[in-house]
Acetylornithine aminotransferase
Amino acid sequence: MNLFDVYPLYNITPVKALDCTITDEKGVEYLDLYGGHGVISIGHTQPDYVAKLKNQLDNIGFYSNAIQNPLQVELAEKLGKLSGLEEYTLFLCSSGAEANENALKLASFHNNKTRVIAFDNSFHGRTSAAVAVTDNKKIVAPINAQQIVTFLPLNNIELVEKELKKGDISSVIIEGIQGVGGLDQGTTEFFQALAKMCEAYDVVLILDEVQSGYGRSGKFFAHQHHNIKADIICLAKGMGNGFPIGGILISPKFTASYGLLGTTFGGNHLACAAGIAVLDIIESQKLMDNVNDVYAYFLEAIKQVPEVIKVKGRGLMLGVEFDFDVSNLRKKMIMDKHIFTGNANNKNLLRILPPLTIKKEAIDTFIIALKESLKEIQS
């Protein structure tokens, strides 16, 4: 049997990783400035994280949500404290797409409405409703297209209000910072107006923080830069540092009932152990302070590269934009300079999503390699 061929693959086989370094089967070391789509938050194979998972596996790895699991309670308490949202409740699942599915479903249960507003260049996942609110027709199958979704441009609050006035909008879903779309984000004015309008029109405001959450923006959630509160916040990626885990934070306006939401693997013992370890390490190592320090350093360092026309995003969720397609540049950075970066729908953009433990010295390495690669491409 062969694998279903849906991923274009680089000829690189990682066998080991530590913090921000990946080592392949030939012993070649790569600087990881992509973190596997922003998943690696506390560094590869962080020792306390590994020990926590090994210890949990020695005891119990999995059982269903039909029994008591104190690890879920511990995770919820620590997440509430670190995010500053202790009044919210937590539902655990296994991925970002699943988190967004449950958020959209819970919103529709809450107000008995169906239509959703999403935004141009959004990405929310590849499952039923999550892919329907994703702005990429190539990955939306006919069965998904049955969902009723209206796509609007970011930062145009007048168009949002025009749709809300029609009375059939169940929810508005928006990324704290757009990921796959290319690191665009709403302004503070837009986010604050959006939050007020959703409340006024009985519309659920869903913040997709799957990639932009967990300290990556320099605050725990990217929308906290705008001093608003969402009705539902969706989590995954950095939540487990590579172990599959997701969840939604649910504001007090929602009432739970048995059977309303459910999951087989969500909140299992191993996933919770991973999630607790991540929160403990983010807090004890003050990783959000590091994010802000390295971000400020990056903004200064990148000025050495005149070909860069713009830096988008914030914290350690960044896009470095050029006035040309960066496909060859990215390939050269990976294959010749041994530095992983990511791409986006914006073909002129390198996406930078390193572990939150990244040091300034690694930024220097990136800048040198970027300057060399640009020179080699141009010659």
User: Anything to note?
Assistant: The radius of gyration is 21 Å. The chain has eleven helices and 14 strands.
